[in-house]
Amino acid sequence: MNTSSNQDRPVITSYVEAPTRTVSARGVNFVYRELGPKGGIPVVFFVHLAATLDYWDPQIVDAIAKDRHVITFDQRGVGASNGEVPDSIEAMAEDAYAFITALGFDKIDVFSFSLGGMIAQTLIAEHPDLVRRLVLTGTGPKGGKDIDKVAGMTYRDILKATLTRSDPREFLFFNRDAVGKRAAKAYVERTTGSHTEVRDAPMKTKGFQTQLKAIKKYGRGTPQDLSKLTQPTLIANGDHDRMVPSVLSEDMHRRIKDSELIIYPNSGHGGVFQYHREFAPVAAEFLNR
């Protein structure tokens, strides 16, 4: 590696300009993007169900990448990362660990959303010293009430979206009132804008179905002891999350010592995206402490 030329390059702080790279670990070529100033502890982003690198909201990524080294990645079998999608959250967490250690990090901060938050909690249960600070958005704990019903709701909303030629996230992440519909359109526009480089490969149907089975298993699993989660933790959600019920954010807040909780009004699963102007600086400040 030519370190001098790396140092001469200007720091990329815009997600749409972040280069796409590959690292190999345990027989998987993990695809990832990185941006922000290198050095110190990186913030690794754990993405949601059926999502690839292209699905992150640049408004949130860029706010954090202003001061921090940010890394987003595709799990095994997702997007352009090869292999088969694992059928358990535990296996996904081990893949995440393999990816992080392949990049040479032994300490990270985590920003997670939905399925990503389930993977993050499981990763910490297995590797408690890896994560310094944790952001959990739109997610819930293992064994959480009604998490096992995500699959049914997801299929119903995908059907509605297909019938109206909409992006399924408009139904899954946002309320269907005027405010929610406006926020949904704006979010989809932000996350489907052209990436300066190549677009990521789309999620395969089989992998998506396997992820849904893993979530169902997680929802019916034995609850983890969240009192062992000692990292400073910020939890955020909308007040009307139909996918991962908002009460589960309150449940995690009660069980994770000294955690901070933000519930945004009149918003759903994607509350942090609807309120990105309010949330992004709060998340950045929390991660920079």
Automatic annotation (TrEMBL):
Q: Which residues form the AB hydrolase-1 domain?
A: 43-272
| Pfam (any one) | Abhydrolase_1
Q: Which GO terms describe its molecular function?
A: catalytic activity
Superkingdom of origin? Bacteria
Recorded hits in InterPro entries, A to Z, give: AB_hydrolase, AB_hydrolase_1, AB_hydrolase_fold
What is this protein's record name?
Answer: Pimeloyl-ACP methyl ester carboxylesterase
